Amino acid sequence: MRLDERILLVDDEKGILTMLELLLYKEGFEDISTATTGQEAMKWVESVPFDLIVLDVMLPDTDGFQLCQQIRMHTVAPILFLTARSGDYDKLMGLGVGGDDYITKPFNPMEIVARIRAQLRRKNLYSTTAVPKSQYLDFGVFAVDKRAAQLTVRGVNTPCPAKEYELLVFLCEHPNQVFTALQLYEQIWGKSMTGDEKTVVIHISRLRKRLESDPSDPKHIVNLRGIGYKFVPIRRIEVHES
Fold this sequence. Notes:
Helices cover 39% and strands 22% of the residues. The chain has eight helices and twelve strands. The protein has a five-stranded parallel β-sheet with strand order 2-1-3-4-5, sandwiched between helices. The protein has a five-stranded antiparallel β-sheet with strand order 9-8-7-6-12, covered by helices on one side. A two-stranded antiparallel sheet has the order 10-11. The chain is elongated and about 55 Å long.
């Protein structure tokens, strides 16, 4: 059976690219693109809506973890890290910056195929139950109503300044994804605005005071030291029709 999912393979070892490409073709995947550098990978990502990306950590022009964060600004497609770096810290780093799986070299080719299929199945399941961005998002402790630009915390309407609200909405629409302070600043305040990453830190602190039972031990907007911030939904998002 021929499969129409678009897959991007990024690795500086051309032998691995060729082997994976042939293996995936044999398994029915037809739309496969390859890149050997981070720059080439970003050109692909910016022009093609991929369904899954296999990403090497050690590339000649960039670190794969940094590249993953850049890719996450363009797509939520599953990212499967493929690398010779097998330490626990590297694995945690890969998953923390937005990766969905981590395979170390040398690897079993059929294991990669199995993991790719598993990630695609999960992606397809999520896409059929995706939450439209225009809906009312209920996270239990708090809820965001984009239509009314209203934040409700523990059942109480809670005033929220514009930029704090925009930051919260962005994080809620990208759950479990890690963003650096600079990436959040560029998303909310814009690249042309004057300011620095401390602006994001201050706004995150204020949001925590509104949302968290204990702002010193946040459960919703968490900080991965040295990496960035991510929003962790405590319970499944509920969608209420208008």
